[in-house]
Amino acid sequence: MNVVPLSSLSALSPLDGRYASRVAALRPLLSEFGLMHRRVQVEVEWFIALSDCGFAEFKPLSEAARGLLRSIVTRFSEADAQAIKDIEKTTNHDVKAVEYWLKSRFEANAELKAAGEFVHFACTSEDINNTSHGLMLKAARAEVLLPTIDKIVTKLTDMARTLAAVPMLSRTHGQTASPTTVGKEIANVVARLAQARSRIADVKLLAKMNGAVGNYNAHLSAWPEYDWEAFSQRVIEGALGLTFNPYTIQIEPHDYMAELFDAVTRTNTILIDWSRDVWGYVSLGYFKQRTKAGEIGSSTMPHKVNPIDFENAEGNFGLANALLTHLSQKLPISRWQRDLTDSTVLRNMGVALGYAVLGYDSLLKGLDKLEINEAALAADLDSAWEVLAEPIQTVMRRYALPNPYERLKELTRGKAITREAIAQFIDTLELPEAEKARLRELTPGNYTGRAESLAKRI
After folding, report:
1. Residue pair 96/39 in contact by the 8 Å Cβ criterion
2. pLDDT confidence tier of residue 278, bands split at 50, 70 and 90
3. What does the pLDDT look like over 230-241, one tens digit per residue?
4. Own/partner long-range contacts of 58-62 (Cβ < 8 Å, ≥24 apart)
5. Which residues, 6 or more positions from 206, have their beta carbon under 8 angstroms from its beta carbon?
6. Is the per-residue pLDDT at 294 higher than 70?
7. Which residue numbers are catalytic?
8. Domain named Adenylosuccinate lyase PurB C-terminal: which ranges (predicted)?
9. For residues 85 and 91, what is the distance between their CA atoms, to the nearest angstrom?
């Protein structure tokens, strides 16, 4: 069998192939390298904190030793990750390989070497893994997810305000309906995204460091009188910046992960909805797309400028949501005090969030190409005078005219209505002349309610 060397062309996942450059920001955070890096960070912070417990057997580390340890974290390289991977070939245990590698870095320092057995002291692998996953998600959320979503919100907010006064025919059930403005429809998306973004940002990232089954058994066997729970909380919240979870089995239950992934899924769903709407507006001619020299829309139809960015966004959001939904449904479930089904699934966090980021990137590219086509919008409105049946019958109700809904239904339902037909109908109504004049001033283009002001204030 011919083995093809790994490259961007031979990668099984398009995230590491065709789209590698577009998700590069996630790679150092959610990859195997990223997991190893955070494991080293957790081991180092636990080790330093232990030295400050006041145990006679482990004196406080010198400032020089602390600096050296933290420099191992800040300077962690791909070569370091590979060295850990090489150790894992022997141990067949990824966390133990990190412990052995870290101890090997102590060989040239007498102070650290003497305290080497306090590396990974009283820890189960999940004490290191769950905190590492929390740190990975913390960085991915703060450095990639939220800033990218914020770019979308900013872009849409600018569009909502710029296009606040541009009237547009609505379509409910695909049929002509009361007019709105382009900006107001975009403002609706901004409002939804603001709520969705806050749900992502507000999820507390939990962690535990309490031993093999969550009870500090090993810790207390060494120092029975020490408050290990308080110590664990100090490390998790003070040194690592996560939120302490006091009640766990061997693993942190991952409920917060489910909450976070569900929040991202909801955000993606809003953007699928918007991507489909924009696709439709492009099809109607409401938006034009700026072309780029050399680009081809169709291999056989030269005129085409396809809305491919919105189609790509929709497809990638769908992939992201399928994976994120599996993660949120599977991760909180563990047989008894622990099984390993979460471990292999957690390695796909980067894949799930990678597809989300790819969707955000595609959507932003598409939005940057859009140009409003006011002529098409105006023509569509001018062919839909039947939408004024709503305000006319509402004014008729105010003045208690009989059967207003039924009379307008008879006039308009399923019929092509003109400005003249509307004016003639208004002339027949038993209304004050001032009200008739006001109704005659209505057009599909100015019957937009508070759409403009709502869009401008978003």
Report:
1. no
2. very high
3. 999 999 999 999
4. 58/115, 58/118, 61/111, 61/112, 61/115, 62/111
5. 134, 242, 243, 244, 245, 252, 255, 256
6. no
7. 173, 298
8. 334-448
9. 10
Tell me which DSSP letter residue 117 carries.
Answer: G
Is 147 inside a domain boundary? no
pLDDT of residue 287: 97
Q: Is the pLDDT of residue 4 over 70?
A: yes
Say how many CA atoms lie within 13 Å of 48 toward its Cβ: 24
166 within a domain of the structure (yes/no): no
Which pLDDT band, with edges at 50, 70 and 90, does 1 fall under? Answer: low
Supply the pTM of this predicted model. 0.94
Residue 46 resides in a domain: yes
Identify residue 406 by its one-letter amino acid code: E
Does pLDDT of 72 surpass 60? yes
Phi-psi region of 92 (alpha: psi -120 to 50; beta: other; left: phi over 0): left
Compute the half-sphere exposure of residue 424: CA atoms within 13 Å on the CB side of its CA. 7
- The structural domain count of the chain equals 2
H-helix or E-strand containing 282?
A: helix 255-284
Q: Is 363 helix (H, G, I), strand (E, B) or coil?
A: helix
Determine which helix (DSSP H) or strand (DSSP E) holds 411, and give its type and residue range.
helix 404-412
Whether residue 297 contacts residue 289, with contact meaning beta carbons closer than 8 Å, is answered with no
For residue 366, give every residue at least 6 positions away whose Cβ sits within 8 Å of its Cβ, in sequence order, or none: 275, 278, 289, 307, 308, 309, 310, 313
User: Per the domain annotation, does 154 fall within a domain?
Assistant: no
Among residues 126, 163, 200, 187, the alpha carbon closest in space to that of 353 is found at 200
Where among 90, 125, 160 does a domain terminate? 125
Residue written as tokens 């810790």?
219
> 155 with 190: CB under 8 angstroms?
no
The band of 301, judged by pLDDT with boundaries at 50, 70 and 90, is: very low
DSSP 3-state of 179: strand
As given in the structure block, the two tokens for residue 383 are: 């062919």
Q: Which letter does DSSP use for residue 59 in this model?
A: P
**What is the domain range of residue 69?**
22-125
Q: What is the mean pLDDT of the chain?
A: 95
- CATH number of 418's domain: 1.10.40.30
Could you tell me if 328 and 262 are in contact, meaning their C-beta atoms sit under 8 angstroms apart? yes
Residue bearing tokens 């309906």: 177
Q: How far apart are CA 448 and CA 199, in angstroms?
A: 32
Q: CATH number for the domain including 61?
A: 1.10.275.10
